[in-house]
Design brief:
Two copies of one chain form a homodimer. Chain A is an alpha/beta fold and 397 residues long. Chain A has 19 helices and 13 strands.
Chain lengths: 397, 397
């Protein structure tokens, strides 16, 4: 383990807030492995580059010998609010939650070290919590403190309903910090209030309160909104290399400084050199973006895949050729073939309605020519290259 | 059972609010015995004349064949809030709660019919309620609805803390209405919001919501505040006849109209005749108050006790004599006698500190003469009449 001041320096890179500021240094000075909590809400399948900003910080802790404690919020994710559907997320089944959790943990394993790592499911302590305990927990904080949370304050101001149930979620998630005895909790900068609630709950149970550490939010490929799966402006850490590279190439130029700093592991000096080079005109933005694309692919795949992803990108977009390695897909027995169904079978779309919309928009091509019909003679599909949008290809056999 | 319109007429006497107004008539028209809920919080031992206003209404329902459903809030009374001691009531032990509940139910039995009557303890359904059920329950209402409750609104405005726990109490008590399938819930007029919460919770569980019926609040003997045990401005339904009569005689004259209407069972015409007689000067206020005293004693004891209580009152206050029947109390062996201890033994005070305070105030008399010392020669006490305050007497033997 490096000396505490050296650890602190490494851990504070790119950090948005440490609250309270001095307590992280105090804990590091104790010289023991800290327990660093990260909660994950298994309500969507992918791990995005936005999430990875926090995960890579967690990995930095691991590299210094501290324990990553992942809390899978399986219990909280299963509790929906049928009376307030429009305002809150829907209730997920246990199977959906498990599916998402496994998928997300798979993504995490691309970033975190396998050790020291603890994975805990919060149903372990929440599902069996009894009435008396819940009432005790709910006495940890006040209504006024709850209403300081930005989204609650906004909804009260706009007279949109907040279910009393929603006041219990932050307490339950705060209790996770008690259950795992967290020293530090990590999150995005929009999670600061929640992380501080963990402190409040720990204090209620007579425990030394954790340090809250937040990371900046990465903007999505649209350059406007926080990266999120529901807005479909994301890059997932397990996206195929070519897809990953292509998505990075699609971001607006002015997003590059943030992505260089938060989405790569380039040393700060190198990132800043590229960023200022672009600003001064000595580096071409397209070149800078290609390098960004390679750095991102390198991080989640390897050097070779990065080079190959760039070459594949060039074949399709610069040289206007089809990609070299197009997957084959066995065409279903039918003539004519109903294209929305086979596009779904082939995994090129997520629903037949998406397929129909793309066909209507002229975004589906057969050997480079736009398709306008949903039903296509089988003979014209066999052996042909099908392209959906810019980057999805398949060859029917 | 009388016809529904006749029932309605009898039930609406003295009522403050029925909400929603038309639904009581609808339920009565169904011709079945209604389930009429009354919650009791076992946090104090006595049943006051204030409480009796609501209880007598419940008895009217019983007399018409409807079922009185008493909910003993044993579970809710046991949950305290250690973090907000100053704001909320302290946590009671199971034994204290049971003791208060038994004492209160004893008082109730002076008013209610033994049948049709159901007594339910809410720990039956609340103690075993699991996390998922509690979260479901908490989704029944919104933060905004909670903050409409007068005391919460006040505390928010004054920036005094409200624990999140306090948001759960009304939901738990509302769930009592689900558990017992209440048709109607009774309460004091300050309980209207709580009774309507019962409706909200029943609706959340797909149940037809109860009718809320509130009774006016009886002012205490001070003529200023709501009658309450914590303010010691109350008459208990099991006070001894002489004590009961004496307390009624101590109320301010302007309180008589309210007490005639709410604290007696005199027919409305008779009450109004006395009230207007006093207003017009044809009835002397002191005579009106004596009659009020007799009516109250008659209600909880009988005619004979009422007459005797008035006579005892006259001997002490009008004729300045000691009461005829003074209980004997065997003096403990000691010389000199420490008076605070024996006053406590004799049940004239509730603590030795109260005794010391009363002695210091000159409120303790030995054969009519003020005592100023706490230690008194045994000989001067034996056979003597001891008077504490206006109405407490004992003879030491």
């Amino acid at each position: 383990m490096p000396e505490p001041p050296e650890q602190l320096k490494r851990l504070l890179v790119n950090v948005d807030r440490v609250a309270p500021e001095d307590e992280l240094a105090e804990r590091l000075a104790e010289g023991r492995p800290l327990r660093v909590k990260l909660g994950l809400d298994p309500t969507a399948p992918s791990v995005t580059l936005g999430w990875a900003v926090v995960l890579r910080k967690l990995r930095h802790f691991q590299e210094l010998g501290h324990t990553a404690v992942l809390i899978v919020g399986d219990f909280t994710a299963q509790v929906g609010d049928p009376s307030l559907m429009a305002e809150t997320r829907r209730r997920l089944t246990a199977e959906e939650v498990r599916g998402y959790a496994e998928s997300v943990l798979g993504g995490f394993s691309r970033i975190l070290l396998p050790d020291p790592l603890e994975i805990r499911w919060n149903s372990e302590w929440l599902a069996s919590m009894d009435m008396e305990h819940i009432l005790e927990l709910s006495s940890a904080t006040t209504v006024a403190q709850m209403l300081e949370r930005a989204d609650f304050a906004e909804r009260m101001a706009e007279q949109r309903p907040i279910s009393v149930l929603e006041f219990l979620y932050p307490l339950l998630q705060g209790y996770d910090s008690v259950a795992v005895e967290a020293d530090v909790e990590l999150g995005g900068s929009d999670q600061l209030w929640n992380l501080l609630m963990g402190r409040t709950v720990q204090q209620r149970y007579g425990m030394r309160p954790q340090v809250a550490m937040t990371m900046p939010l990465l903007l999505g490929t649209d350059g406007v909104n926080k990266m999120s799966q529901s807005l479909d402006n994301y890059v997932a850490v397990d996206d195929a290399p070519a897809d990953m590279f292509g998505k990075v190439m699609s971001i607006p130029d002015d997003l590059m400084p943030q992505w260089y700093r938060l989405a790569t592991e380039l040393p700060a000096e190198e990132s800043e050199a590229v960023i200022s080079g672009v600003a001064e005109g000595s580096v071409h933005p397209a070149e800078a973006k290609r390098r960004l694309g390679r750095e991102v692919v390198r991080l989640y795949w390897d050097d070779e895949e990065a080079v190959e992803a760039e070459a594949a990108f060039d074949r399709v977009f610069r040289d206007r050729k089809s990609p070299e390695e197009v997957p084959d897909h066995a065409l279903r027995e039918a003539d004519p073939v109903h294209l929305p169904g086979v596009l779904l079978d082939a995994g090129l779309v997520t629903s037949t309605s998406e397929a129909r919309r793309l066909i209507a928009q002229g975004a589906v091509k057969l050997d480079g020519a736009r398709l306008t019909e949903e039903d296509v003679p089988r003979a014209s599909l066999l052996g042909a290259l099908i392209q959906v949008g810019k980057r999805r290809f398949v060859r029917f056999v």
